[in-house]
Amino acid sequence: MHGLAKAIAKEFGVHEITANTIAVGAIETERDMTQYAHVDIDLVLKNLAIKRAGHVDDIAEAALYFASDSGRFTTGTVLHVNGGEYMY
To answer: Domains along the chain?
Structure first.
């Protein structure tokens, strides 16, 4: 997805069309935990710089930035909204 967004950003930037992606981390949602029996949630959260799961609003705010005038000059970017999961 990140590669596709960069390709779109490069090709359509001349038309002021932007393309970006959001790297989402552990987000607190209602889910069927039997589908995640292989995942140690406590270990996932322990390895985050921010020692908690994110909220769906954190992702929504990132998307709103890209869609707003504030993000009009941002393109070909990956915004990591993941509590620091990918910085190590």
So the answer is: 2-81 (3.40.50.720)
